[in-house]
Design brief:
The protein has 399 residues and is an alpha+beta fold. 30% of the residues lie in helices and 18% in strands.
Length: 399
């Protein structure tokens, strides 16, 4: 039986040390909710407690949702995983790739932040490029092997050229003009702001709807999701958690200044980032987790085929390109192996993902466990958050 006191103690300690302002957790076992609790504050200054209505900046937990949308279109025969991106967006047909002679370091896992590339601050002036031998496919975008926005060069160029006022279409055009860090399909890393924005734009092209409308009509409505997406209603703006930065026992409100959020904020410009732009409650994200836990079925209705579910989450159907030792990319989620350096408690085959501000979810299909965590801290470490790892350890002691 789950030890709620141990979870309460963990969360209270983080709040008392002012490492986070507030949080929410939902845990399921065999699809039954076995734990739900909320801690601390959504808004310290105004005394607003975190509760089931608190809306979090989901950051990269947007990506699994966009991956689900792509796979729904795969089920309809409108997209194939091996389709060339240039079939949908011709400007990606003539990509250049960096010829790396070793003077400019490519992607290397950072033990303190596995999804962040280690790179130099300045771009050398003497880099060489050649036409890419491989074209980017839809699957390369889904499993972070496209070479765009993953290594030091294109990451720096994204930071240089993308502005907060750019629309999705404008950003995708800029992405098509960037060089690749490596040949598509040959390496992996993490495309924080590029691959899933491109996928969002492909969804728009294929469906004839905006990304926001497609997700609302095809995914959120069938799941009964009301408070997750890009267009949180005006009535719910008051429930949006403030974003805090933690430093030496002090929490500072950075809701309007944190760099990533200024680039992906859908409330400001209406730009819908497929990479990191969604907002939502953990109760609504729990429905996404249930869809995964039940292998594409929700409340008896199949929304995703079994084949597409397996394509997303099966180690056997995904190339063994490791993000970090023991962890590979599925489609929109990471999949844990047997020998791994982080997330050591997770069963082999467990999958999920995290957000830059501490949001985290995982699904263990072997033990039939799902966990969703909402947090509102700008510098907690994303996928390497120690809070997420500590929560995983407690869950596996008792489930």
């Amino acid at each position: 039986m789950l030890d709620s006191k141990q979870i309460d103690s963990l969360m209270t300690d983080y709040i008392n040390r002012k490492e986070i302002a507030g949080a929410g957790i939902i845990i399921r076992k065999e699809d039954e909710k076995v734990f739900e609790s909320y801690y601390g504050y959504a808004d310290i200054e105004n005394g607003v407690r975190a509760d089931e209505n608190t809306i979090y900046r989901l950051a990269s937990m947007t990506k699994p949702i966009v991956a689900l949308a792509v796979m729904m279109l795969v089920d309809e025969g409108k997209i194939k995983l091996d389709d060339l991106l240039s079939e949908y967006l011709p400007s990606f047909s003539r990509m250049r790739v960096l010829q790396n002679d070793g003077s400019f370091v490519g992607y290397q896992p950072n033990k303190d932040n596995p999804t962040a590339p280690l790179f130099k601050e300045d771009i050398p002036s003497d880099l060489n490029f050649s036409p890419a031998s491989n074209q980017i496919t839809i699957k390369h975008l889904l499993n972070h092997s496209s070479g765009l926005g993953q290594g030091p060069l294109s990451t720096l160029l994204v930071d240089k050229y993308i502005k907060k006022e750019h629309s999705l279409e404008e950003r995708v055009q800029i992405f098509s003009e960037l060089p690749l860090d490596f040949e598509p399909g040959t390496q992996t890393g993490y495309s924080a702001l590029v691959a899933y924005d491109i996928l969002g734009y492909v969804i728009e092209k294929v469906s004839g709807q905006s990304l926001n409308d497609f997700l609302r009509d095809r995914l959120f409505k069938p799941l009964g999701i009301l408070n997750l997406g890009y267009d949180v209603s005006e009535n719910n703006h008051s429930h949006l958690a403030k974003l805090y930065e933690s430093n030496n026992g002090t929490l500072t409100d950075v809701s309007e200044t944190e760099k990533l959020w200024t680039l992906v904020n859908p409330l400001r410009s209406g730009y819908c980032s497929g990479s990191a732009g969604m907002l939502g409650t953990i109760e609504d994200y729990d429905k996404i987790a249930q869809l995964f836990l039940n292998k594409g079925v929700y409340n008896g209705a199949r929304l995703l085929s079994k084949d597409s579910y397996l394509s997303m989450t099966s180690k056997e159907l995904n190339a063994p390109l490791e993000l970090i030792p023991g962890v590979i990319w599925g489609l929109g989620v990471i999949i844990s192996g047997q020998e791994k350096e982080t997330h050591k408690m997770l069963s082999e085959g467990t999958y999920g993902w995290s957000g830059a501000y501490g949001t985290h979810f995982f699904v263990d299909p072997l033990k039939k466990i799902s966990v969703v965590l909402g947090v509102n801290c700008s510098n907690i470490g994303g996928a390497a958050s120690p809070l997420s790892l500590a929560l995983e350890e407690i869950v596996y002691q008792y489930c």
